[in-house]
Amino acid sequence: MKAKRILVAILSLLFIGFLILCTYSPLQPTAVKVPAVVTGAPEGDGAAAPASSGPKLPSLITPKVTLTAGSFPEDTEELTAVLSAGETALLDQFTQLRKADFSGSTCYDELAAWASSHPDVDVSYTVSFPDGTVVNNKAESVDLSGLDAAAAADAANLLLALPNVKTANLGTVGGNGFSYDTVKLLQERLPALALSYDVELMGQRMGPETTELDLTGATPEQLSAAITALPNLTNLQTIHLGDETGGIGWDTVNAIGAACPKAVLDYGFTLWGVQANLSDAMLNFSHIPMNDNGEAVRRVLPLMRNCTGVDMDTCGIGNETMASLQADFPQMNIVWRINFGTNYSVRTDVEKILASSPMRGGDLNSDNIQVLKYCTKVKYLDLGHNNDINDISFVSYMPDLEVFIISINDVSDISPLANCPHLEYLEINSTNVTDLSPLVNCKELVHLNIGRNVGQDELRPVVSDISPLFELPKLERVWLGAITAKHVPAEQIEQLRAQIQQNVPDLTLPDTPRELKYPAVYGVDTEAGTPSEGNWKIVGYTDLSIALFDETGWLQEVLHPRYKLLREQFGYDNVPNCYSLSYNDPLY
Fold it and tell me: What is the pLDDT of residue 303?
């Protein structure tokens, strides 16, 4: 027996030696494919492998990663395992991992975080809700309508582990399931998640299809519940709240308005003695003095979703404050009154301003005329014959301007007109204007008067280049006059004449200057500068010249129909009642 044991021992030693010989083969290391060596550093941590002191010998043993679910080779490409808490830290040892299924694992926060930081790995796992609902992390919707109140409290944490979920059905809120507080928590923690649910409120069950809600007489608790629920009633159009005598105060109204910003609020109130409702389309405070600089009105306007206009004519609030109010509520037409000159007075929503009579309305100058910038809806503006206006920057705020008369003034810069694309009729005669280039933006310009744009001594600048007018496709009438025309190159006049003749092919004009058989009429530009009685001759007129104010004789044949419309728009036939004077304004 002893000899037998010795023999077994000898054979065992021989077998071990054979294994050692097989492991340490004399073959060169370069001829053997060496498996990856695990350094223990997580993937991407920047740690470098220790320098080799010589050629490595190949190993027949593949390193493994030990998890609760078992041991898996480090070069595993597809892994299925149920992980325990803390084991996601070991996953980076799988250097070849491309796909992993961790369904059944309950360390949801770890799984979500690891999946987010490893987008190159196709990670699957499931989240189990208290009612038994199991949701895959790749799901885009989840139905949680079966959760009771106790289980619903955990839903927020569980949903955080499902980053792909875009919609969640919560069932009926306010009953035995989700509470309003839990819904609010979900909305705060998951603002991108669309929640769908019905609400149980004041004995009413409402859902996404609900368009009208009556909260009249609701208790504070019911109102608090409604404020939580309203953001999810996405089709709600009207909310009835009674009036300020019914117990619902402005703080609650503001909170309801913020919770449902698209719904119209039906709420009655009194402001500055005016009975109004938040659902009104108009507010009229005309001629009601306000001593709070408009703050009460400013507070109520955000809640008036139907309101399109507010009349604050003569309320005693300054122009800048009113302009600020208008800027804050651009969807509303907020109207107030401006005064300029001595007697000129208009509301900011006027379409016509006629202020060409200094003897009636007072002298206008560049300082007292700038308030017109608040009249942004003006279409027809006549400021002629005021002499001292040299700054027309206010017209930059009048995008709808169609007619502008600034003749007989000191203006030289007409660049603000570049912001008036609908301008049709322009008189800048007897001014210092020399540069017509801003008019290239006025593509709808039909009628232009640039006559007498030099002083009688001709020492002022003069219009000498009309080429910008070649860019105006609708131009039909240009009044140059004798004095202006002689400073413009003849070839430019001929080119413009051809352009106008093409725009108005049926227009018949005299080939040469012709003699009038009646006294000169106002507006005719003569070489002498002053019309004379009896017969006289128009010297230097071109085919483009038309006396705008003559409605008799041969000029009537070619008078542009726009002038007739102009007289109607300004009411020139009703002098002096046509001027923009305070005593002519029935709303003053």
Answer: 97
